[in-house]
Design brief:
The structure is a homodimer. The first copy, chain A, contains 6 helices and 3 strands; from the N terminus they run ααβααββαα. With about 120 residues, chain A is mostly helical. Chain A binds a DNA duplex (30 and 30 nucleotides) through α3 and α4.
Chain lengths: ~120, ~120
DNA sequence: TCCATTTTTCAATAATAGTCGAAATATAGA
DNA sequence: TCTATATTTCGACTATTATTGAAAAATGGA
């Protein structure tokens, strides 16, 4: 995943309405939700919702599929996993993330003396 | 981690300059980098850099520590992990989602899988 | 104190993002 | 075809974010 796409994906989720939309879709699972149902669940008016769904879609975070008069939206787990993979590598700096993922991150004063990992 | 904080953290990273800054700091490890060094590495002019560092700091993604005439910035791995935890739960919808951390992040023994009190 | 160095704040501007009612589009069924 | 339903687009507006030179603030050392 290129950083350009990462920024786009992050920006897609970095907004109250869109994060709520995405969470609804994740919770709904592979069956997804119709746009109107998302509007009901989140309280976002249809026109605003459409705007945000387009953002999410453009970022690859959701897919859509017409179904009769409805449009079913689903969370794109592949993109989400790619995003998490990128962030994890960034978080871990390419090293095994033991110093990161253990609760040993709190000492603030005495870690400037540690040497940089390879 | 509350969704408000998640949105703030995501927004902090959802920008070219800030993602570059954060990656530099992750790569630098716990020793961190002086502001001027970040400016050199990223090519971001000092005033812009200061703006973005403040954003990152406000989001809890970086910490700073004066050191003489320098200000040393470090990535806040705790926040980053909390963010990844939230996103992983969102991505997985409460189900196991092993493919996220497989490549480089294999824990050697026991990783503290901290749960938030929500 | 005075100076060089480092970083932040200020200020003005440019660019992008968010909101939502109303109109337009598309579809299914009668 | 006509109508009700579902969704998107349009348009006008507001709000937020990003950029950066110049000035200011803070520090260590001569």
């Amino acid at each position: 995943m290129e950083t350009k796409d990462v920024v786009t994906a992050l920006a897609a989720l970095a907004q109250d309405s869109r994060l709520a939309i995405f969470r609804s879709l994740v919770q709904a699972g592979p069956a997804g939700l119709a746009a109107g149902r998302i509007s009901e669940l989140t309280g976002i008016p249809p026109s605003s919702l459409s705007f945000h769904l387009k953002e999410l879609s453009h970022a690859g975070m959701v897919d859509s599929q017409p179904s009769g008069r409805f449009v079913i939206y689903t969370a794109n787990f592949t993109t989400m996993n790619a995003l998490l993979g990128f962030l994890t590598e960034n978080c871990c700096g390419g090293n095994p993330c033991s110093p990161v993922c253990t609760p040993a991150c709190e000492p603030e004063q005495s870690r400037a003396t540690e040497k940089e990992p390879t």
